[in-house]
């Protein structure tokens, strides 16, 4: 789809630069950004156009690029039939700007507007998405990338952003399918294939019987809203290239870069200390996570970036690095080849770290994550409870907090996302992390795994801590991080239809 010819009402004019490539998307810069939530149609795969919900008439929505230290205003206009919000995933915004309906704001009603304003202090790769009825609205396409360019960022010649997602070719669960009144928390997941691993796809969000809610219905995997189209990433020999990978879907993807050595220079936007050179490894990227790769374009030709997940739909999740003047590609997919995943536990160099396993913490919490039958329905629990009955993590400003995340589910991954804060990973399955400090806001905990993470309570507010497989969140796997020395002046409107998950 050529977005340059669309009517982009209410948007900024795109600013083209030599080193930033908006692949099939618009780039918005400056200190005032306008986003309009609206219905549209988009060709997701060749010959397959689906109804979508969008920001500024495309999926993904525009990439927003701002400078570190800028105070920015984002004006949201809602032209949809349902209320929406915007959550700034990974960005440590003030609590009032977090975009959580019923917690930090009322959902923005159809025909109304809302302004988000905050200072972009921390550079990195982030994204934005609706957090109103998010299991459905994110599924329809309400998301985009958000990049804070750092004052001390290493210069690159090319800078690409690739957003990963999954869709249903049937169009079920998309706009016009009467999803809006659905209460996922009451849904019976027992008949569903809810695995978050390689061999599954997101469940349908229709109002049919539970057995129809099968993750394998998601049969189109996309990069930047396109499946199988081999979007081209143009490079010149000798270029230093940065690729920002963002998983906006509900499944993990195993991303492989052909023909080049690379480094992982950032996790969830936060830098890795002296990253080592990698080759023939996949980056396993779970829902909500971001990884920044960097490589030198030193192997002329045309080379795939592709998903090695064990799912036939993965063949659609491809892009092509194309050197200037390169002949037509002879590079073939090797997606069936089993490659090892990058192990962050020993990656990079152990520089200065904010936290250690053995230090004394103000508070320690354990979160046991599980999949259980409750009242005849499948529920996703934290310490045997479902939201809103889960026990909040309570802190006060300045506390140091250690959290133990334990996945007791038999088959379900749980990518846990903490709003408003970054945490450092201390250990996995009792083994300390020995390389660079790995700083994240979203961490995938696979069945049987246990992680210890630590953070400082440095951003007062009432914050969500939830699974970013939003089917799990909507079925209970949500808790809150609450500051006892913070009092919000927000008042929820009972008529706003607030649906925080």
UniProtKB/TrEMBL annotation:
GO terms for molecular function: copper ion binding; oxidoreductase activity. Residues 1-20 are annotated as: Disordered. Residues 43-152, 211-324, 371-483 form the Plastocyanin-like domain. Residues 9-20 have a biased composition (Polar residues). SUPFAM superfamilies: Cupredoxins (SSF49503). PROSITE patterns: MULTICOPPER_OXIDASE1, MULTICOPPER_OXIDASE2. InterPro entries: Cu-oxidase-like_N (IPR011707), Cu-oxidase_2nd (IPR001117), Cu-oxidase_C (IPR011706), Cu-oxidase_fam (IPR045087), Cu_oxidase_CS (IPR033138), Cu_oxidase_Cu_BS (IPR002355), Cupredoxin (IPR008972). PANTHER family: FI03373P-RELATED, MULTI-COPPER OXIDASE. This is Multicopper oxidase. It comes from Paenibacillus pasadenensis. The lineage of its organism: Bacteria, Bacillati, Bacillota, Bacilli, Bacillales.
């Amino acid at each position: 789809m050529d977005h340059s010819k669309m009517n982009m009402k209410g948007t900024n004019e795109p600013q083209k630069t030599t080193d930033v490539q908006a692949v099939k998307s618009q780039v918005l810069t400056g200190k005032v950004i306008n986003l309009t939530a609206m219905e549209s149609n988009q060709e997701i795969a060749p010959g397959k156009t689906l109804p979508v919900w969008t920001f500024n008439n495309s999926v993904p929505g525009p990439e927003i690029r701002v400078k570190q230290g800028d105070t920015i205003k984002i004006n949201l206009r809602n032209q949809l039939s349902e209320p929406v919000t915007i959550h700034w995933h990974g960005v440590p915004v003030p609590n009032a700007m977090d975009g959580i309906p019923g917690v930090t704001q009322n959902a923005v009603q159809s025909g109304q507007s809302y302004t988000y304003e905050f200072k972009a202090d921390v550079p990195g790769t982030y994204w934005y998405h609706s957090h109103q009825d998010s299991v459905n609205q994110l599924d329809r396409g309400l998301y985009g990338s958000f990049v804070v360019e750092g004052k001390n960022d290493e210069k690159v010649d090319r800078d690409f952003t690739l957003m990963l997602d999954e869709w249903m070719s049937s169009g079920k669960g998309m706009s016009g399918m009467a999803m809006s009144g659905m209460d996922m928390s009451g849904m019976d997941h027992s008949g569903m294939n809810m695995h978050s691993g390689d061999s599954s796809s997101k469940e349908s969000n229709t109002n049919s019987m539970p057995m129809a809610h099968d993750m394998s219905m998601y049969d189109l995997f996309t990069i930047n809203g396109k499946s199988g189209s081999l979007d081209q990433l143009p490079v010149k020999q000798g270029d230093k290239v940065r690729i920002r990978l963002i998983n906006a879907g509900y499944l993990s993807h195993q991303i492989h870069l052909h023909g080049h050595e690379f480094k992982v220079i950032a996790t969830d936007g936060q830098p890795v200390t002296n990253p080592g050179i990698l080759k023939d490894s996949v980056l396993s990227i779970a829902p909500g996570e971001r990884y920044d790769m960097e490589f030198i374009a030193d192997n002329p030709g045309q080379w795939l970036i592709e998903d090695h997940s064990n799912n036939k739909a993965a063949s659609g999740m491809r892009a092509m690095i194309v050197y200037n003047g390169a002949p037509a590609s002879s590079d073939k997919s090797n997606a069936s080849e089993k490659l090892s995943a990058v192990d962050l536990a020993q990656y990079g160099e152990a520089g200065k770290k904010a936290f250690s396993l053995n230090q004394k913490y103000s508070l320690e919490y354990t979160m046991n994550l599980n999949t259980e039958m409750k009242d005849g329905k499948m529920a996703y629990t934290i310490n045997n409870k479902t939201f809103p009955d889960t026990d909040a993590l309570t802190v006060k400003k300045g506390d140091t907090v250690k959290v133990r995340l334990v996945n007791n589910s038999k088959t379900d991954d749980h990518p846990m996302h903490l709003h408003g804060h970054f945490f450092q990973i201390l250990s996995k399955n009792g083994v300390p992390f020995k390389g660079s400090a790995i700083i994240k806001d979203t961490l995938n905990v696979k069945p049987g795994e246990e992680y210890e993470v630590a953070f400082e309570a440095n951003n007062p507010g009432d914050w969500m801590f939830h699974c970013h497989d939003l089917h799990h969140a909507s079925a209970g796997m949500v808790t809150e991080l609450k500051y006892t020395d913070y009092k919000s002046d927000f008042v929820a409107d009972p008529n706003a239809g607030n649906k925080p998950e």
